[in-house]
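Practice record 12: protein with pyridoxal-5'-phosphate.
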Amino acid sequence: MPEPTELITGLIHHPYRPPDTWDAVPPGVFKASTVIFRDVAALRARSYTAKTGYTYGLRGTPTTYLLEERLAALEGGRYCVLSPSGLAAIMNVDLALLGAGDDVLVPSNVYGPSADLAANVLSRWDIAHRVYDPMDPADLAAKIGPRTKLVWLEAPGSVTMEFPDLPALVAAAKSRGVLTALDNTWGAGIAFRAFDLGVDIVMHALTKYPSGGADVLMGSVVTRDEALHLKILRLHGQLGLGVAANDAEFVLRGLPTLALRYRAHDAAARALATWLGTQPAITRVLHPALPGAPGHEHWAGLCGAAAGLFSVLFSPALSQADVDRFVDALRLFRIGYSWGGPVSLVVPYDLDAMRADREALPGHLVRFSIGLEAVADLQRDLAQALARIG
Ligand SMILES: Cc1ncc(COP(=O)(O)O)c(C=O)c1O
């Protein structure tokens, strides 16, 4: 029997086009590696940097453009570039703005892999990094040198939770004409208005609150200045840092409930952190919205909300094995990195390995990410685990 060529080709080049009147609450999900051009003139006319049309899946689809616009709006920015993880977004900023001979300043409590990238990867291209004390704007000012091109900011540090005086840090960098990039994963666009502070770049790990499902890895870089955006976008294109449509779909699905979820995480975390502060095994609660936490006054001066993340210090009188037993005894809290999802998480950190000024934080640090479970159940879980070491 001859091959039914019309049928085979027809299944690929089928003439039917569905009516274009479709509208629904969720946006459509467009997937492509190849983008089809109507004719050669269209192929030649399109520019992915100007977003006048589509050129190739890696450079953007209607789904990723839509997510970019919504994220730029969330932060009060104008431009957004998506990356396959928060860490990739950090790398995008670093590699776009730094070159041989430059240096970058990172806070001492910065997200660990960001410091690792600076110390062990950027250094190979003769880009130096220096570490500043985020709680001392004078230290930042003193460390800015003629070669400093970028200052990273993070508020609060996501393990030790110090909330810096962001306006003072931004002012120190601005007075020397140095660009600032804020890792705003904790603020998520809800806790405070980052661009109002004068920062140049706002980066997010969308992996956390914007996704909300603990099922997506993605990052974003939002800017207001076109030239700066284009630098970041070009490098993004050169490195091939595109995101998958299904992942963008998940984040688009998470955004409408972002503010509600953020406030629920916030209320639950404050309640549990306050209660933990009354427990004899715990000597200090590191939650920026609670009085006595490092930088609480800076949080109070800037923020209208806080994320569901905090740490506590267990008494130095306890052993690490006691603290590990507490963590292992938790049932609703699961042991795992990350935050912003529905399930409460817990991680014991080794401060000896993390901090040069270890003595400033005596005891054993345990970080909690509060999920969306009932607060009373979480408190019962903490109480039964504390009873094991009491
Ligand atoms: C503050 C902060 N920034 C960036 C990242 C990186 O995000 P991702 O895991 O998507 O690479 C994380 C992840 O834990 C984080 O906590």
